[in-house]
Structure formats: C-alpha cells, structure tokens
Amino acid sequence: MLQNIVYQKLLPFDTVIIDTWYAVNNLMGYIDSRDKIYFCPFKTNRLVDDTFGVPEYWIVDYLALGGRRYIGNPKQPTISVYYLVDGEYQVNLFRGSDHIISPTFPELNLTAEQIFQAGRSQNQL
Asked: Fewest CB atoms within 10 A around its CB: which of 30, 60, 83, 123?
C-alpha cells in the first residue's frame, strides 16, 4: 500500500504515523530508507518485545502522543530511557530541563529540552 501511494499516485509526504501493530522490521526499514519521519505511538495492548535484549533504548516522544501511562499526566514531551536490569527493562522519564541519565552513556550532558530542540531544528531544514 505504501509503495502504491509513493510511486503510482505520486502523493508527496514527509511523515508517517503508524500503529505499532504494523511496525514490522521490513516496513519500518522501507519508511526509514525513504528518509521519512515516522511516529509509532505505543499502545497499552501491545505486548511485543523486539528489543532483542539490547542493554538500553530510548523513546523520544516530542509530540506527547504516548499514553498517560507512559508519559505522565498532564501529557508533555518526554524521553523514556529503558535499561536492562536482570532481564527486565526499567524506565526513567525525562522532561523539560531534566538532565538525561543514561547507564550506557554516563558522560552524556544533555537535557530533554535540548534533544527536543535539536529535533525541531532538523524538521525546519
């Protein structure tokens, strides 16, 4: 379907919003290879773990699209840093002027807002 929209109908687009149910590796690779921005809001009814045991991963939700369960109430732009402890992921949430704490990158000296601002600057190019 995505190829049909892109190549046959020549519909220009910059951003893809996709349900996590459909966010499989080959589709996400296809979207990413076209240099498109994509959003996959995490749903509470998805128990899929495709992290393959990586020690740390981040979810940067700069539009505050995630559920309140994941980004808090009131909803606001949030960086979730998940890190593996004894086979289970723990999470720390960072917003605004919070300094990001990363077990993988302990020297990192950035706030959540600095990361959000960098993303906004990239989107204006």
From this structure: 123
